[in-house]
Amino acid sequence: MSQENVEIVRRSVEAFQRRDLDAYLALMDPDVEITSRFVAQTTYHGHEGVSEWWEDMLRVLPDTGVEVQELHDLGDVVLLALRARGHGGGSAAPFDELTWMTAKARDGKCIWWHAHPSKAAALQAVELRE
User: How far, rounded to the nearest angstrom, does the alpha carbon of residue 9 sit from its chain's CA centroid?
Assistant: First the structure.
């Protein structure tokens, strides 16, 4: 099951890179819960919330590109280091940031993913230690 979770995470990153919201939503459980470090410090729920996050993200950081730096199978949870690069929508100021994410899937769909400021914070959030 954990390899399936890794594949779901990998495919969701690819869908974001292609800007394919329909493919992204197809990988999300209808009750998915997500948090982001790049836009509003809030939690988004369900497909409606994912669509709202997607729009917020691309409005604030319209040319964001993401690249997987690390991907770890932790059993029930996937730990992902994601490099995000682009420019701010209003200022055109460049950004280049590494963010850590944790994700969990069930029955072939992502049920939650959360962004964290560091690997230690991500591991702590899922109660693991380096």
Answer: 8
Residue 71, domain CATH: 3.10.450.50
Task: Judge contact between 60 and 88, C-beta under 8 A.
Answer: yes
CA distances from 130 to 10, 87, 100, 101 (A): 23, 33, 14, 15
Sheet (strand 94-106) strand order: 43-45, 28-35, 109-116, 94-106, 78-87, 65-73
Predicted pLDDT of residue 65 = 93
E-only strand ranges, 17-62: 28-35, 43-45
List, for residues 20-33, the tens digit of each pLDDT value.
999 999 999 999 99
Domain membership of residue 15 as a residue range: 2-123
Is residue 130 one of the residues assigned to a domain? no
